[in-house]
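Please produce the structure of this protein holding zinc ion.
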Amino acid sequence: MNRLSRIFQPLTIKPRNAEILNLEGLSCSQKLMMNMGIIKPSNPGCYHLLPLGIRSIEKLTKLIELEMKTIDGQKIEMPLLTSAQLWQKTGRYQSVTSELFVVNDRHSKELIINPTNEESITDLISSVSPISHRQLPLRLYQITNKFRDEMKPRFGLLRSRQFLMKDLYSFDSNIDNAKHTYNEICQSYDRIFQKIGIDFLKVQASTGTIGGTSSHEYHFMSPIGEDQIIVCNKCKYACNQELIAVDQKICTKCGENDNFQILNGIEVGHTFLLGDRFSKPLDATYLSNEGKPKHLQMGCFGLGLSRILAATLEILSENDQLRWPRILSPYTLIIIGPKEGSKEQTKIQNLPEELYNTLNAVPTIHEDILIDDRNNMTIGKRLLEAKRVGYPFILVIGKKSLEDIPEFELHDLVNKTEHSFSESALIDFLLD
Ligand SMILES: [Zn+2]
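Below is the modeled complex.
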């Protein structure tokens, strides 16, 4: 049984030393995640992810992994360290040094703590090259921590120095096939964001220091977003402002004159059609039908898991209350039983635990229920706290549980409604 009293969730009820903490300049999601015991700050730009935060991240990971199965993605795990020599070979070491965490080993060899893994994966394929054309298309991904020495880490998990990222790398025999793969994986990313349920924009983006021929970013719209997204009001073509010349007034796609809107976006995903940008310098090849080794055509596709979570909370949460999409909430339902010594408690005894077990058999919330067993606290106090943490469903066992057919109070935070349900009506509702 998941008991709240046993969960490590250090709450900041009222920041006692608000001045020292200096909560100004923090984003809404960052403040709430810290106050509600989802994350705690460590050194600048690094955070402890606490049990409730981990549960949410694990749900997001599962959602992504299920989606990867539909596009034949194979999960791997690469080392966190890559030789700096590899990055020199591709010319990237020189261009992004300031953001790289670099360490020296005991033999004075430079190693990069990976912010991304194009060099590493291409080197892996190169080491077994030429691979058979029967292996293609090949899609390999991992979900691991990445590191970037941000000049200004801020907004908690939105711009941190350590972040959880899913990176997928695709290998194809020619550029047409690579484009086909690119579109297929972008569609799969669309589905992931649709399941999370936050409106997103897929926008044309700069290929930056990674390079390649084409690139798109996925953005959640938010006033605190650090990217400016230009959207044509006529054809809805969207691109990152960095692609637009300062004095440009014409839509690149439809030719509409000066009819744009500018939105702030939080980048939550980034895709690149790489071509042979990495396979050529690192010599990653496949054996063609004619028996000749040819350079592989690649794509790379990133999703920032910790950032997706923070951006989602940033957009859904209100005032001092967290709000989660049901699919990512640490627990879907919390049960609050009567206070110790109350009339209800004396009469109904183990009802909260019984109800927990009954509901746990409902497939839609199986293993996803929490019981607030801190019965020394009033219902009102626990209800307020549950609302602040934002569990989608809060079930209160109050006065009506004493009626001939006991009824329970259900607070549905997603639809902002309240219901009074008998046990069977409650199960029907949760099965929906
Ligand atoms: Zn247009």
